[in-house]
Amino acid sequence: MVSVEHHTLCDGVQLQSIRDTKFKTFRISVHFLMPLAKETAAANALVPFLLTRATRRYPDFTLLSRKMDDLYGAGLGGDVGKIGDCQVLTVTASALANDYALAGEDLVKEMTDVLCEALFDPVLEDGLFREEDLRQEQRQTLEQIDADFADKRVWALQRCMETMCADEPFGVGRFGSREAVAALTREAVTDAWRTMCRTARVEIFVLGDCDPRGVFESLKAAFANVERSYVPFAAAPAAAAPKTVRRAGDTETVVQGKLVLGMRSPIYGSDPRVPAMRLMAGIFGGTPNGKLFLNVRERMSLCYYCSANYLPPKGFLFVQSGVEFSNMERAESAILDQLAAVQRGNFTEEDVATAKLSLCNSLLTAEDSLSVLDNWYLSQTFGERGLSPTEYAARVNAVGREEILEAANTVQLDTVYRLTGKKEGSL
């Protein structure tokens, strides 16, 4: 049994409940949406992790962990990401559903209380986050940035995004720059937390086997104690591709080159053509049956991997490929040839059916995981809100060939990024 509810807690704070009794757990996620900016990204990025380290009632990590253990292994965690031009700061609480508590404990209330304490009553010293807590989270964030750099597939995509969106907020990484993270102070991060509570757009999702009424009342009361000064913001208009393709590259000690092509389409956000664009990306290179895999990788043997990924919040299409240094030119040409083929309508009804099957399977499996379902509803923040994965799958299945062809012909190449070795074949 599934029931859906929508509530407004206060200005700029929305709660959506998707209650599904097939789950034996529940999940409450509070997502703070802040404008992406290089000046604030680093300080914002540390906030969710600091908030989930300790609270005033549980003033160290050990005490908080013990509390989670007492609640049948409940979880409290933080995360940072980005959707379009927004940085998303997330704090999530999850636990066993009340019906399965051995002693009849109200786990929903317990975890809602802990969540509210983490958000609005963290442990502070002299009104600031503690130095030790800040330094530990700062170190872990720097390690994550270094890990992204070490994964050259991830790093090459980031570098392409930075080049493509050098004058747009989306070009800022979710953690900000390494230099900015290393320079953070207690004052800067504490101010970021207070600004987040006061000004952010807040999207709250209550998922799984959980009566949302108590969650709603508790969070409404918690936000009532915050002096909100929310200023609505919307997704920025899509920028046009440049008249001349941007080209950028780096040289590192790698044995396999990375080629990333960044493309733009005016189809993004709540545009009704987004499902057609998703299918176009699948036919082009979003599945093992896509043209990039079958032709550029398999038939032409020009790369180790080659795939396309469409980002609906911005209308971006990225093609990522692992390529021998000597094959960079040929691989780029072959990728663009496959795009041109799709734009000419060189795809079959079987290609369309396969892309629909792949996309719909992905959508429907989202309903089997609370974390994936959470991400699904969050992804609709600047799109068509409230559609379940099943409802969206029906939209996908209704798309016709001509709509896919129309979507394909809106795609334009913007940026080409290449990562090559300092010396071909060097380790």
What does it look like?
The chain is built from 15 helices and 13 strands. The chain has helices at residues 41-51, 61-70, 107-120, 131-150, 152-164, 178-182, 186-199, 212-224, 274-286, 291-299, 328-343, 349-365, 370-379, 389-397, 401-408, and strands at residues 2-10, 13-20, 25-35, 75-83, 86-96, 124-125, 128-129, 201-208, 246-252, 257-264, 305-311, 316-323, 412-421. It has a six-stranded mixed sheet with strand order 1-2-8-3-5-4, sandwiched between helices. A five-stranded mixed sheet has the order 9-13-10-12-11, sandwiched between helices. The longest helix has 20 residues, at 131-150.
| CATH homology superfamily name of the largest domain | Metalloenzyme, LuxS/M16 peptidase-like
Describe the sheet with the most strands: 6 strands, mixed
Q: Which residues form runs of ≥5 with pLDDT under 50?
A: none
Q: State the end-to-end distance.
A: 56 Å
Q: How many domains make up the 3D coordinates? A: 2
The CATH C-level name of the largest domain is: Alpha Beta
Large-scale geometry: globular
Helix content: 40-55%
Q: Could you say what the CATH architecture of the largest domain is?
A: 2-Layer Sandwich
H/E series, N to C? EEEHHEEHEEHHHHEHEEHHEEHHHHHE
By CATH, the topology of the largest domain is: Cytochrome Bc1 Complex, Chain A, domain 1
Radius of gyration: 23 Å
Total count of strands: 13
